[in-house]
Structure formats: structure tokens, C-alpha cells
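Input (structure):
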């Protein structure tokens, strides 16, 4: 008798956010090309002055996002400008809370002066990696974000750690996918693997994600993931081409709009 193997139900994604980082400069170190991504994303993460971002750059980023009608959020990181936030730090919960409150508060004040509101918070670099792998650390970040505002969305890598931290702290989350990354069988990111910058591969991965809620894993199979947002990294040399092609596949919408759509309030 032939064995019948039941396949998981296909889950199509109809609405998804595209996001990128802004204000990834400091002093004489500039990155003006990042502003070109504003034409392809629905939300941006603005550096808060720790791993990158100085007052004038932050102001410029907020005004550019406002002009393009793009949702803004705070891009928080470790206080490590020389290492650009890619060196991990061993901090206790009080130190993490102070670090987050300081950075998010700065962007909130800037935004308020331009009659804008920030809607989310996304960790950067080593902080992002730690929050993706360490539940206790992720909860510390989420708790601090919630103290800034209960309405802020906590952005993190797709997976159980982000989801469970959001549930534990009772804060809205956005689970994020990066097309250039290699994923493990369990849906976590293999941070040691080299980024894949092939436009063909990245767009193929996007189509698979949208049609089946799956990413290709390092063993050649497919893994189901939750995806609210796709991050386009300025570290990828051809990110503008990838983002441009991605927007031809689907028009991105902010996470809050995606949630409202899912609720049935809009069609």
C-alpha cells in the first residue's frame, strides 16, 4: 500500500512590510545612498546615536521619511561606534533598560518636533543577534520598549524567541525575514553564513515566502516561518536592485496596516 504523506497547508502572504535602516552615519562617516531605499520600503529604522547616527543625520532621516510618507521606528544598538554595534556586550537588565529608553526617547523627541510618531523599535547588529537567540535578553529589550510606549511594535528575527518574548511581555511584535540570509532547519538565522547577494536568488526566495510562508534552509529543504516584515540591508552591495525588483512582486505596507487588514477592517 502506498504511503500518503500529508503536506502542511499552503499559507499565502498577501500583505508584508519592507523596512531598511536610515541614519547609518556619524560625523564624517556618511552613507547617503541609504536614502534611495525610501522609494521601495514602507518603514524605516532610524539610528539613535549609539552605534550610528548624529543629531543632524537623524533629523535629515526623519524629514526624508516624512516626505516619502514612510513609517518610522527607532534603530537601537550597543554604545559602540568604533565597532558599529557589532560587538556583543554583557549588560544587566537595568543597563539594557537605560540604554533602550535613552535611544528610543531621543528619536521620539525628534519625531514629535516634526509632528511625527515612531511606531516600532528594531535592534541592530550584535543586539539583534542576541535578541534572536536569547529569550531573557529579548524580554529585557521588549520590556524597555514597552516602557517607552505600549503601542510600539518590537521588531525581531522570525522565530520562537521573538514570538514568545512578545507574548511574555505582552507587546506587539513583527517577525522579520532577511532574504540574503541562510536559515537553519528550525527557522533561525545562521549568522555565520555569508550573505547571498544574487538578485535571482533573493527574488526567488521572496516568491517562495509570499506563496508558501517558507524559507529555504541550509540543508536544501524548506522551513515554515512567520513573516510580518522583510529587512533590506545596506550591507548588501546591490540592495537597491533587489528592493526594486521585490517591489515589482508586491507593494509593501507597514506592519500596523497589515494587522488592520488582517482584522477585516479594510479590504
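Output (sequence):
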Amino acid at each position: 500500500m502506498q504511503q500518503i504523506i500529508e503536506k502542511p497547508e499552503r499559507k499565502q502572504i498577501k500583505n508584508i512590510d519592507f523596512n531598511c535602516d536610515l541614519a547609518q552615519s556619524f560625523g564624517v562617516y556618511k552613507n547617503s545612498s541609504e536614502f534611495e531605499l525610501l522609494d521601495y520600503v514602507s518603514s524605516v529604522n532610524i539610528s539613535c546615536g549609539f552605534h550610528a547616527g548624529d543629531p543632524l543625520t537623524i533629523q535629515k532621516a526623519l524629514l526624508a521619511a516624512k516626505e516619502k510618507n514612510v513609517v518610522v521606528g527607532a534603530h537601537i544598538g550597543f554604545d559602540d561606534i568604533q565597532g558599529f554595534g557589532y560587538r556583543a556586550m554583557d549588560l544587566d537588565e537595568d543597563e539594557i533598560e537605560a540604554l533602550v529608553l535613552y535611544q528610543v526617547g531621543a528619536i521620539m523627541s525628534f519625531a514629535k518636533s516634526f509632528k511625527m510618531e515612531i511606531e516600532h523599535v528594531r535592534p541592530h547588529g550584535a543586539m539583534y543577534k542576541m535578541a534572536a537567540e536569547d529569550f531573557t535578553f529579548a524580554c529585557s529589550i521588549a520590556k524597555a520598549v514597552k516602557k517607552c510606549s505600549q503601542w510600539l511594535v518590537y521588531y525581531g528575527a522570525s522565530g520562537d524567541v521573538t514570538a514568545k518574548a512578545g507574548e511574555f511581555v505582552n507587546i506587539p511584535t513583527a517577525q522579520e525575514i532577511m532574504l540574503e540570509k541562510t536559515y537553519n532547519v528550525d527557522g533561525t538565522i545562521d549568522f555565520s553564513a555569508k550573505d547571498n547577494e544574487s538578485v535571482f536568488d533573493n527574488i526567488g526566495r521572496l516568491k517562495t515566502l509570499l506563496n508558501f510562508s517558507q524559507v529555504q534552509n541550509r540543508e536544501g529543504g524548506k522551513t515554515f516561518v512567520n513573516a510580518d516584515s522583510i529587512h533590506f540591508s545596506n550591507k548588501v552591495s546591490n540592495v537597491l536592485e533587489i528592493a526594486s525588483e521585490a517591489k515589482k512582486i508586491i507593494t509593501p505596507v507597514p506592519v500596523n496596516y497589515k494587522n488592520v487588514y488582517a482584522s477585516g477592517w479594510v479590504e
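Notes: The radius of gyration is 18 Å. The domain at 17-263 is CATH 3.20.20.370 (TIM Barrel).
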